[in-house]
């Protein structure tokens, strides 16, 4: 059967992608960040996943404010790269796995999660930056990708508890697929940051590091964090961290933390990263 072997949590700051695309990754400002991801690149090269389920949020590219799905699963053969105002990123088109995605939708809907089926969708930096950080700059992405877009832009966002339970349902669905596949699930976004208003530029390392601790040691504590606490303690955009709880819920109870990295600043945000293997 297919199985989820590990989870990856990582920020998806758009400036990271711009630094790579414009040849600035080796500059003094950016070098410590990219060096921090080198162990992760080695890890994923050794793990060789067949499929990556990437949980991310669209930034008003695939979806505008006419339609805002809470959970949208990409079921297409491929996903073009969105033009976010400065041209599409020069990265490979993302190849999907429509058969497995359709199976996931069926299983999740029958498990009482109301999934939006998306058969045509562009993907933006929320998905491509994590792929770049883990896979580098290949001619083609080395595995198939199933995008799972979560609404954390338009109030109300789903709760951490709901996201964690969705992760558990994803694990069940993956294990119901009769093919020998290694699956890695990404939870992206965060960590602490706010990009507008009087608190623009806010970061909270104490909150971020406690959150990383909770992922490996006590996820149930994280599940109980109310949405207002993310906003109050870690900035308006820190609500993206509920997407990491989908990743964590999909891993089962026992995990081993194999790598962690934390860095400030990257643009105006705190960058966090963790790799958890299923045990």
Structure description:
With 279 residues, this protein is α/β, with parallel strands linked by helices. It has one domain: LigB-like (Protocatechuate 4,5-dioxygenase, Chain B, 3-Layer(aba) Sandwich). It contains 10 helices and 10 strands. The strands form 2 sheets. The chain has an 8-stranded mixed sheet with strand order 6-3-7-2-8-1-10-9, sandwiched between helices. A hairpin with a 2-residue loop joins strand 9 and strand 10. Helix 1 packs across helix 5, helix 4 crosses helix 6 and helix 6 runs parallel beside helix 10. The longest helix is centred in the middle third of the chain and has 16 residues. The two termini are 17 Å apart. The mean pLDDT is 97.
Please sum up the structure shown:
With 279 residues, the chain is α/β, with parallel strands linked by helices. Helix content is 35%, strand content 22%.
Features:
22% strand; alpha/beta; 35% helix; 10 helices; Protocatechuate 4,5-dioxygenase, Chain B; eight-stranded mixed sheet; 279 residues; two-stranded antiparallel ribbon
Write the layout of secondary structure elements.
Blueprint lengths: L2 E8 L3 H8 L9 H6 L1 H10 L3 E6 L14 E4 L3 E2 L14 E2 L2 H13 L5 E3 L6 H11 L8 E7 L9 H16 L6 E7 L16 H13 L1 H5 L3 H8 L7 H8 L5 E12 L2 E10 L1
Helix pairs in contact: 1-5, 4-6, 6-10
Low-confidence stretches are: none
Share of residues in strands: 15-25%
Major sheet strand order: 6-3-7-2-8-1-10-9
Mean pLDDT: 97
Major pleated sheet: 8 strands, mixed
Intertermini distance: 17 Å
What order do the helices and strands follow?
A: EHHHEEEEHEHEHEHHHHEE
CATH C-level name: Alpha Beta
CATH architecture: 3-Layer(aba) Sandwich
Secondary structural class: alpha/beta
